[in-house]
Structures are given as structure tokens and as C-alpha cells.
């Protein structure tokens, strides 16, 4: 997270930087026991999608980064601000298939008083 000073409130996060390393233990949804996996990352209304890792047997690796701007004062006001990660299988025909999802509440990290957190 990047921080900015606020005289009356101390340091407040203005951005969150996310690095997607890999997923583990995914079930195969494609042919031959593999998946064509990608991750959708969302904070508030902002979204980012990783590239597709083709024909992965269950532990795709991305090593991709993205950054999201937080609305001013959202964390200290207690607004619902979660980092949502959704892993999908790209289907060439029909709808993409759900592989897994996790939500990380950013307010909890802020309340812990840490400027950085690896998870």
C-alpha cells in the first residue's frame, strides 16, 4: 500500500498494490486434466484480469502486478473495501468456468496498523 500524510488522521492508504503469484490445488476444467486459468482482481468497482496460463495442471503461475486506488478515507470510515480474487477457466466455447475465489478485507489490514502485508 502507498501512504499519504493527513495531519489530523495520520498516515492513510491511498492505493493497494497486488501481486498475483500463483494458485494451488485447482480442479481441472479443460481437456486432458488441465485448465486455461486466469485471475480477476477487484477492489471496489475497479477490476484487473491476469493473462491466461494455458494447459496448467492445477497450479498456474502468473507473477503479475496491478494497483488500485482507494477512495479517500474509505478504510478509516469502515466502508466495505475488499480485495476479491476470482480464478476462472477460459472456455473457447460457452461461458468461462469458475475455479475458485478468495476475499481479503482491506479494512482489517488497515486496522492492524501495518503499511504492508504479504498474504
Automatic annotation (TrEMBL):
Organism field: Eleutherodactylus coqui
Keyword Acyltransferase: no
Protein name: C2 domain-containing protein
GO biological process, one term: regulated exocytosis
GO cellular component: early endosome; mitochondrion; phagocytic vesicle; recycling endosome; secretory granule
Main location: other
Keyword Magnesium applies: no
Domain C2: 1-119
